TrEMBL record:
GO terms for molecular function: pyridoxal phosphate binding; transaminase activity. SUPFAM superfamilies: PLP-dependent transferases. Keywords: Aminotransferase, Pyridoxal phosphate, Transferase. This is Aminotransferase class-III. Belongs to the class-III pyridoxal-phosphate-dependent aminotransferase family. It comes from Dinoroseobacter shibae (strain DSM 16493 / NCIMB 14021 / DFL 12).
Length: 443
């Protein structure tokens, strides 16, 4: 191939030509076990019959009708299904084409809410270091990785960052999980007070942190306290479930396990499961009503939002995820994956932590288990593990800069929910070998 794709191309990577269950097959016929669903996208594998049938049926009816003129049956069905399963108080869905778009829409909706309710000074966003919210300018500003923001700093909206909830590194010796959860959440109160509550619009966080941290779950009680603090100061709580949502952690919405409802929640990745580019922003009735009874409309829009084909694919995905037993299976398979990882890697001299929820698991790599000293970034260990795993026929998602944007390596696992027991074994086996290959190559 000529290699005109912007970025990496056929010269550097294999060409994907087919998908079969949990496998991607390249042009040479090599099979790759998709241990991370790409980047936690392919939750139903690569040839799911219900999603394929929904796409075929929809393309035979109509592919596109602009939402400025029409609604469509698949968009209506999808939004009804999402609301039927959404956290309490969430009543409306705004369809988009991906995760970053959903975060942008969430930030703009929060701003418009405060304009409509007579608090125009509220425009500041608080987010957490060590989080990823997307690559468009608003979402990038909210993201925690300083190195991603650096080049574009003059273009970004005003955002402030607090420490994440990251027990492996921040919980004090002897501190209970609950006490740590409260302490971590109180960083939000301190920051709101510092900025002036009347200027703060929203706090945005991933319930289980994905790409930048490797499936870090919150401490018990953390999000309950965050919810209380947001309510106390009138700050909107935006949960970014683009990666951890849609059943990835074993409940359709990850925040169900933390017992709270956000004001706005964003989803993408698993919503389309890789069959269509789609995302969504879901908002509370309170926000919707304020705008409906105020100016009358949310000042936003994209040509492809509510695209019928994408909505048809996502409708079939959501129906599959909501079918009885699917979430229980994710939880059970997640527990199996965790225990197999612990058995294979729990004593490994460079594995510091194995964590996560459901089929969303992270392995943090360290130089020294006792001191938790991170690996030297120059060794590029997580990138080497990705390459070694690909060579063995395994896809896993590497991450670096886990701790402070510079130090810290982890591997993220997010296999399709259809993964079988023997495939979990194969995944863990190939990953353990890839870790050893990468460490040996940089000793
Ligand atoms: N939010 C989170 C939590 C993500 O993990 C991502 C992507 O990795 C995004 C937002 C951005 O999504 P997209 O790449 O679809 O724009």
């Amino acid at each position: 191939m000529a290699g005109h794709v912007f970025g990496r191309s056929a010269a550097q990577m294999p060409t994907a030509v087919a998908g079969a269950g949990c496998y991607i097959i390249d042009a040479d016929g090599k099979r790759y076990l998709d241990g991370s669903g790409g980047a936690a996208v392919s939750c139903l594998g690569h040839d799911h019959p219900a999603v394929r049938a929904a796409l075929h049926a929809q393309i035979d009816k109509i592919a596109f009708a602009h939402t400025g003129f029409f609604t469509s049956e698949p968009a209506e069905v999808l939004c009804d299904a999402l609301i039927a399963a959404a956290p309490k108080g969430i009543e409306k869905v705004y369809l988009l084409s991906g995760g970053s778009e959903s975060v942008e829409a969430a930030l703009k909706l929060a701003r418009q809410f405060f304009l409509e309710t007579g608090e125009p000074r509220r425009h500041r966003v608080i987010a957490r270091r060590q989080s990823y919210h997307g690559n468009t300018l608003g979402a990038l500003a909210a993201g925690g990785n300083a190195w991603r923001r650096e080049k574009y700093a003059p273009l970004l909206v005003e955002t402030y960052h607090i420490d994440p909830c990251y027990a492996y590194r921040h919980q004090a010796v002897g501190e209970s999980d609950a006490a740590y959860g409260r302490r971590a959440a109180d960083a939000l109160r301190t920051e709101i007070e510092r900025l002036g509550p009347e200027t703060v619009m929203a706090f945005i966080a991933e319930p289980v942190v994905g790409a930048t941290a490797g499936a870090v779950p919150p401490a018990p009680g953390y999000f309950e306290r965050i919810r209380e603090i947001c309510d106390e100061y009138g700050v909107l709580l935006i949960l970014d479930e683009v990666m951890c949502g849609m059943g990835r952690t074993g409940t359709l919405f990850a925040c169900e396990q933390d017992g709270i409802s956000p004001d706005i929640v964003t989803i993408a990745k698993g919503l389309g499961a890789g069959y269509a580019p789609i995302g969504a922003m879901l908002a509370s009735g309170r926000i919707y009503d304020a705008i409906a009874q105020g100016s009358g409309s949310f000042q936003h829009g994209h040509t492809y939002h509510g695209h019928p084909l994408a909505a048809a694919a996502a409708g079939a995905v959501v129906e599959t995820l909501r079918a009885p037993g699917t979430m229980a299976q994710v939880r059970a398979k997640g527990a199996t994956l965790q225990s197999r990882l612990e058995a294979a890697l729990g004593q490994h001299s460079h594995v510091g932590d194995i964590r996560g929820r459901g089929l969303f698991r992270g392995i943090e790599l360290v130089e020294d288990r006792d001191t938790k000293r991170p690996l030297d970034p120059a060794r590029k260990v997580s990138a080497r593990i990705k390459a070694a795993a690909m060579a063995r026929g395994l896809i896993c998602y590497p991450g670096s800069g886990t701790i402070d944007g510079k130090h810290g390596d982890h591997i993220l696992l997010a296999p399709p929910f259809i993964i079988e027991d023997k495939q979990i074994d194969a995944l863990v086996h190939m990953l353990a070998e890839a870790i050893d290959d990468a460490m040996a190559a940089t000793q």
